[in-house]
Amino acid sequence: MMILKVFLAGFIFSFLGSIPPGTLNLAVLQLGLEHKIKIALRFTLAVAIIEYPYAWIAVVFEDWVTSSPLIVENFQLITAVVMTVIGGFTLWSARKPSDFSVRFNASGFRRGIVLSILNPMAIPFWIGITAYLKAQGWIDLSTPALLHGYVLGTSIGVLALLVLFIFLAKRLSGYIKDNRYVKLVPGFTLLVLGLYAFVKYLTL
Fold it and tell me: What is the pTM of this model?
């Protein structure tokens, strides 16, 4: 039953940890609001796939990463850059779509892969969560089966949360249909979050 316990721990903390606004869940919400359900589902699948190796890296290299504060601090800077750039790109493509932005936005799976890889904050998140759960004695990752059960839980957790976002957005879309400002909201939000991350990084 231990493997079920670590799976549920990974699932629950992944589900809850994916709720705050970020690059990936805002992109999924936007696709849901635009009724691009198939694209959103492919995007979500890609995010869940990338979550697996990122969570695995966090667990396996936990001791090495936490012993180097410089690495953890740079994750904050990377996030700031990525969110600002993607926020700007989202606003630009919403106002003046180019052939590239149209193809990129229409390709849910490839878009999900790219944005997930460029969003490595999953690593420090899982380092912190895993260290806490292990310190409390709530999980045991001493065997490969337990480790991969835990990591699989993290992938399924983010998948479940993002699918929920898609269908909640689909229900909301009827109230805000044809509102030309809807497409700009995710971009503005990412831009603000990116600038906030820069400020936070500079004040460390």
Answer: 0.71
Cα-based angle 55, 56, 61 (whole degrees, multiple of 5): 105
| Distances, alpha carbon 171 to alpha carbons 15, 80, 101, 109, 181, in Å | 20, 31, 26, 23, 18
What angle do the packed helices 144-173 and 37-60 form, to 10 degrees? 150
Residues above pLDDT 70, as percent of the chain:
65
Spell out the residues 6+ positions from residue 113 whose beta carbon is closer than 8 angstroms to its own.
46, 49, 50
Which of 24-38, 58-72, 171-185 has maximum average pLDDT? 24-38
- Cα–Cα separations (whole angstroms), residue 146 to 2, 58, 103, 197, 202: 7, 15, 40, 34, 39
| 127: its two tokens | 């380092």
Asked if 193 contacts 87 with a C-beta cutoff of 8 angstroms, the reply is yes
* Angstrom distance (rounded) from CA 152 to CA 78: 25
